[in-house]
């Protein structure tokens, strides 16, 4: 569940392994007699979510992908996942560090950055 408001009963949600992303926690119950709309855009945290949009959440973030961009975003995400999987295997094989294998050392050198001594 993703809400721009507050939730309660968080321990029960945790026990049920029910993922919740909210702005706050509040012990006061809510009203259930509030008229709403189905299949209409909503705005959450300043982001408009349209019916059919893809909403994905994990421990780091909540992301809204417009329906018409879903395939493009999926393809980009899959390519990145495969790249990171290969990088992780190289790190596990002791071929180098993320810093070196990702080319950060070359970027630092090209910018003439220096590290200050402790």
Can you offer a commentary on this structure?
The chain has helices spanning 10-15, 70-92, 98-101, 104-110; strands at 6-7, 24-25, 42-44, 47-49, 54-57, 62-65. It has 118 residues and is an alpha+beta fold. The strands form three sheets. The chain has a two-stranded parallel sheet.
Give a summary of the structure in a few sentences.
The protein is of the alpha+beta class and 118 residues long.
Radius of gyration: 22 Å
Share of helix, binned: 25-40%
Strand order of the largest sheet: 1-2
Counting DSSP E segments of at least 2 residues, the number of strands comes to 6
Class by alpha and beta content: alpha+beta
What's the total helix number? 4
Q: In terms of quaternary structure, what is this?
A: single chain
Tell me the distance between the termini: 46 Å
Low-confidence stretches: none
- Overall 3D shape: elongated
| Mean pLDDT across every amino acid position | 91
Largest sheet geometry: 2 strands, parallel
| β-sheet strand percentage | 15-25%
Spell out the helices and strands N to C: EHEEEEEHHH
Q: What are the SSEs and their pairings?
A:
Elements: E1 6-7, H1 10-15, E2 24-25, E3 42-44, E4 47-49, E5 54-57, E6 62-65, H2 70-92, H3 98-101, H4 104-110
Parallel strand pairs: 1-2
Antiparallel strand pairs: 3-4, 5-6
């Amino acid at each position: 569940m993703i809400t721009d408001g507050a939730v309660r009963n968080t321990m029960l949600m945790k026990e049920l392994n029910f993922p919740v992303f909210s702005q706050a926690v509040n012990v006061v119950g809510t009203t259930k007699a509030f008229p709403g709309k189905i299949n209409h855009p909503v705005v959450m945290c300043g982001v408009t979510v349209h019916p059919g949009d893809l909403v994905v959440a994990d421990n780091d973030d909540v992301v809204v992908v417009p329906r018409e961009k879903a395939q493009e975003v999926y393809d980009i995400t899959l390519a990145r996942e495969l790249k990171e999987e290969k990088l992780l295997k190289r790190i596990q094989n002791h071929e180098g560090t993320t810093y070196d294998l990702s080319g950060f050392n070359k970027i630092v050198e090209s910018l003439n950055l220096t590290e200050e001594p402790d």
